[in-house]
């Protein structure tokens, strides 16, 4: 199992990283694809509107479409204008999406 620190060090070292999904429950409705690989683009440590520290991972579906639909997804209400600017957020069906490290590890 990989740790946040390992991913963060790899990101800071400009390593090429990927993540893969195993079998997903068809009823989970996460927007992610079962048995599929994703590019791990970057990691970000931010503070949300409530002052909590959040660890975010930016992934990309190599198909260029289809994204995570949970917390911190493109349509998530958790985004503030300040956070969007801080992580270079875009709302587009481009395969790029953010997911919290906790959700990343669970999913």
CATH architecture: Alpha-Beta Complex
Question: Treating each run of at least 4 consecutive H or I residues as one helix, how many helices?
Answer: 3
Could you tell me the mean pLDDT?
A: 93
For the sheet with most strands, the description reads: 4 strands, antiparallel
The helical percent reads 10-25%
What features would you highlight for this structure?
alpha+beta
How would you describe this structure to a colleague?
By secondary structure, the chain is an alpha+beta fold. The protein has a single domain, classed as Alpha-Beta Complex (Cathepsin B, Chain A). 21% of the residues lie in helices and 26% in strands. The protein contains 3 helices and 4 strands. The chain has helices at 4-12, 81-87, 101-106; strands at residues 17-20, 37-47, 53-60, 96-100. A 4-stranded antiparallel sheet has the order 1-2-3-4. The longest helix is centred in the first third of the chain and has 9 residues, at 4-12. It is globular and about 35 Å long.
